[in-house]
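step 3/5: co-fold with adenosine-5'-triphosphate
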Amino acid sequence: MYLGLAVSAQLNDSDWLTARFSPRLPSPIPAAYNLPFLIRGPVKRIKAVYPGSFDPPTNGHLDLIERGSKIFDELVVAILRNLEKDPLFSVAERRNMLEAMTSGFDNVSVETFDGLTVEYAITVGASVVLRGIRAISDYEYELQMALMNRKLQPSLETVFMMPAEQYSYLSSRLVREVAQLGGNIDCLVPELVAQKVREKMDPALKFANVEQAEGKSPERKASKRKTRSRKKRS
Ligand SMILES: Nc1ncnc2c1ncn2[C@@H]1O[C@H](COP(=O)(O)OP(=O)(O)OP(=O)(O)O)[C@@H](O)[C@H]1O
Ligand SMILES: [Mg+2]
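step 4/5: write tokens
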């Protein structure tokens, strides 16, 4: 401002106007008054909650998480506890899988909750509930839920997102059913989830994997047996 006045003092009336409003010369109007936030208001950070059972998490869930992470400042993937009496995965297992799947997103976290989604959302300071819509069948149920949630908590907005086309038929229930019948689930869930589902279906696989990780492969076992029998003979 001081510099602006000094410049204008050396100019005549019309030059002063040019100097005052020309973007090339220092403006006598303090820069702070030109900041866009004075026009738009302070930038608001939007936190969203994405609730579900995620039993197991699928590529459809991941697609929605990725879309949500791009439009919200913060996204909490919230696993509902006690939804089903006999889930395939425990809440802790689902949380581990989701944490691994979302480790590449800076603004995504994974939590668990029980009770009303709206109460949980308010508790964590969220203003949006994110939900996915796959087909018309989802729409009816989701609309009912969204309207009930609005009745319970008018300040919360439900935002619906659609997944990429190839995931529009995908659900956790289908993944469970396909896996239980021995079908291939590789393109339906991330690799780490596919591995966990296979272990659930065939617990022997889990032990095989643990042993492999510990270096107890069948070949190593066989060579150990040979060494033991050689020792006995000598
Ligand atoms: N493939 C998908 N595309 C888009 N949204 C999805 C997809 N799968 C699940 N969602 C959405 O994610 C949210 C949480 O879903 P949820 O955990 O119940 O998964 P689900 O696949 O519906 O599981 P289940 O078959 O056990 O009901 C819901 O809003 C659901 O509509
Ligand atoms: Mg569902």
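step 5/5: annotate
The chain has eleven helices and five strands.
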